[in-house]
Amino acid sequence: MTALPLQAGGAGGFIGNWLQSAIGLAPSYAAAIGAAVTFVVVAVVLYVVGKAIITPLANRVMDRRGLDEHAKSPLQKVVSIGIVAVSVGVAFAFAGYGNILTALATVAAAATLAIGFAMQDVIANFVAGVFIYTDKPFRIGDWIEWDGNSGVVEDISLRVTRVRTFDNELLTVPNSNLTDGVIKNPVAKDKLRVQFEFGIGYDDDIDKATEIIVEEAEKRDDILDDPGVSVRLSELGGSYVGLKSRFWIADPSRADFVKTRGEYVQAVKERFDAEGVNIPYPTRTLEGGLTIEGEAISPEAFDAGDER
After folding, report:
1. Which residues contact 119 (CB under 8 A, 6 or more apart)?
2. CA end-to-end distance (rounded Å), the chain
3. With b meaning 16 or more CB within 10 Å and e meaning fewer, what string describes 232-245?
C-alpha cells in the first residue's frame, strides 16, 4: 500500500512524509513527530545562533553608550528573552503550526502574561530604579533615613539600593521601598540645621542660660556664623524650662552632625555646671496609703516612729 503524502506544511510536513515512507508510520503519528522534531531543532539552532551573534552585538552597543554593569545586566536579560521568543516563534512556523506572525504574537502574548505575573515585584523595582537615576533623590555617599532606618548609600542598581547602617550592617533595600515612601536626605543641601533642647530649673536665670548656649556655639569653627545660632524658650515642663538651640553646619555628613552636636552639648553642660545653672532631674510624687492586716496606716505614723 502506497503511503499518502501528509498535508502538514513547512519542514514539519517534509519530515513527516519521510517518516511515513521510510518507517511506515501512520500519517497522524508521522505528522506529529515530524512537527515536534522540526520545532525543537529549529528553536535550538536559532537560539544558539542568536546568542552567538545578537548578544555580543548588543553588548558592544551598550559599551558604546557607556552603561555600567548595573545598567547592562537587566538589558542583557531582555535581549536573551527576545532571542528565546523569536526562536520559538520561527520554530512554530517551520514546524507547520501556523503563520510566523501569528506564532510570534502568540508566544509574545503568553510570555508577557507569564513574565508579568512572575516578575511584578522585579518590574516595579526596575521602574523605581529608573526614577532614582533620573530624579536623584539621593546619591552614593549620602546619608538617608526612611521607615525608621538610616544609613549611608553605598550602591544604587536598577533593582536594589545598598545602604550601610551606622552599626556597619549592610541593608539591601528594594528600590520600590524608597520611591513609594518618604525619604529624608539631611545632606542633600550644602547646610544642615541642628536642634537640641536644654532643660534648666525654674529658679535659674533664662537670660544667663541663653547667653551661655549662644557663646558656646559661637566658639566653634564647625558651627556657622551666618545663619547664626538662635535660642528660643520651647517648653515649660513638669520639672524644667526647655530652651531649644538651633544652629547650622556646612557640608554636612552623619559623622560631622554627631561629632559637632555631641561636643557642643558637652561644652554647654560644663558651662552650666561651672556657672551654677541647674539641669534638673525628673521628679515624681507618689501619693497613697498602706494597709497592714486590714488596718490602714497613715504616712504620719511612719514619721512619728510608729512600730506597729
Report:
1. none
2. 124
3. eebeeeeebbebeb
Q: How many CB atoms lie within 10 A of CB 68?
A: 9
> Containing H/E element for 46?
helix 27-64
CA 242 – CA 129 distance, rounded (Å): 44
Alpha-carbon span 9 to 201, nearest angstrom: 97
Q: Is pLDDT at 139 greater than 80 in this prediction?
A: yes
Alpha-carbon distance of 13 to 94, in angstroms, equals 9
The fraction of the chain above a pLDDT of 70, given in percent, is: 70
Nine-digit cell string for 144 = 538617608
The set of cell numbers assigned to 214 is 549662644
> Residue 173 corresponds to which amino acid?
V
Q: What is the amino acid identity at position 137?
A: P
Cell 559661637 belongs to: 218
Task: Look at residue 143 in the predicted model and tell me its pLDDT.
Answer: 87
Cβ contacts of 255 within 8 Å, gap of 6 or more: none
